[in-house]
Amino acid sequence: MRIGGACQGINEYGYCTGDTWVRCDPQEGIIALNCGPGQCKRIAADGSGACRCGSIDVNGVCASATGASVANPRVHFTCAPGADVLIASNCAAETNSSAGFCSTFVTAFGHQTSCFCNTCSVPNAAGQCRSLCSNPSDCRYFATGNFHTCGL
Q: Model pTM greater than 0.90?
């Protein structure tokens, strides 16, 4: 196994080895993320597991495949609350768009972090990319802050 190498038998959910979560990212290959002392949680006898959620909730956060804060995050980390482990979704793979990235949609009612196909474009229930806003010209993307709005 080589970090960044072909995934060969390692799935996207991964496993724990000590305090490290090892998983496959569709674009980056094998990823090893240090969860911190005692924070990699095994959820099955075969070692399957991931980092504990900590402060990350079901809305999640955007980051690089290795969990780093970056200007153009490509991975959406969310918490599987029943298991209290992280799930990492590569947005390019999730949206079937090479331009896929993670961002936050802000409305007057709150915010939702998820994978976007491209600026102002999200996948619908069938997985096809569509405009984020009912009136596409209302969509605004703010690179500083990495968020979208519709007419705000």
A: yes
